[in-house]
Amino acid sequence: MRTVFLGTSDFAAAVLARLSASDHRPALVLTRPDRPRGRGRRLAAPPVALVARERGIALEQPERIDDPGVRTLIEAAFGDIETPGEDDNAGVGRADAVAEQETVLVVCAFGALIKEPLLSAFELLNVHPSLLPRWRGAAPVERAIMAGDAWTGVSIMRLTAGLDSGPVCAVAQEAIGPADTYGSLAERLQRLGGELLVGVLDRWERGEPQRFDEQPEEGVTYAEKIGAEDRLLDPGRTAVELERQVRALHPHIGARLALADGTLLGVSRAAAADAARLPAGRLAASAGHLLYGTSNGALDLLEVQPPGGRPMDAGAYLRGHALS
Fold first, then answer.
1. What is this structure's pTM?
2. Could you tell me if 88 and 60 are in contact, meaning their C-beta atoms sit under 8 angstroms apart?
């Protein structure tokens, strides 16, 4: 089995690491171009690019994945595949030639829609961290935690023109614990996704039939990309909802709340304190705890980050900041 890997994020980098250690090591990795990151806005490579370089895998970072030149890059990675000419039988195309050589393009958290000509030219498998059709889209792990789902998982699907709507060939479940953050849950899903993918490719290579089941129309939800409004803790919501929001955004994005002076206080860890009573939106100290009023109680802010400062526990924050 010969593979090409398309991915960008930390999640995709972990799946790539597992794939590269298997019998299905990619001949080529495609990822997004380097982008400015951090406060200094320095140019940085995507996590997948770093793993590809560490593992000595050929790497390309095209500006547009739907550029016709990308197909040429993929074909060049397998120089022994002969491309049919224009006068060949109409029923024999590039996709057929590639399929005969057991070549699969694996996509995981690439960060851009895969379009033509790749969709028609190759077999594409997508590693998606949710129990499809629930949480199609860009932020399935975060949205599952925010919604209070008891279970999530990983689905291996055939990539189609729709948004994560293709037929599924393998699924594995993972429980979401009451203390799970994005970081802890994503780590388990990365391992699960890597193993599930390798298992699918192993069976494929052995010639076992792959069953692809169409996703049901019922139960479809969309995991929209996390925006600025998703980070802001709304005191009109319940303490339990806000606690889940904090966990869902830690440690990679971070939740925050608006202070009276208009600045934003980052919140890294929090717990619902329903027994406490505090007006919604009010920040107060109580017995060494930093509390934030919600619609039905209070949120106990365990670790916060002042504007321009470093993360600190509530006690350290209260020693250095007077509450009005």
1. 0.91
2. no
